[in-house]
Design a protein that fits this description.
Elements (H helix, E strand, L loop, with lengths): L1 H16 L2 H4 L5 H23 L1 H40 L1
Amino acid sequence: MMFLFRAAFWIAVVAAFAPAALTGAQAHEGDDRSLEQVIAAGQDVMQFCADMPAVCEAGREAGVLLGGLTDATAEGVNRWLEAQAEAGADTDA
């Protein structure tokens, strides 16, 4: 179940940032400029991490922590949904 949530999340992220040419929409002149801005922002982040590795490491650890919290929350929601489904099945019988 968690795999489906993660897959849907990453597909949505990729779709949000995909160039218009990949999504089937017609490309505009600003699309090239937008892609260049994304690449420049990525290079800025890489330079920032090279200058301040401790900050980037803390960000990575926070990401791992948030991933664990997300997993635990999704597992709890899944258990709750299963309990609700079982309770509904018990009342129908």
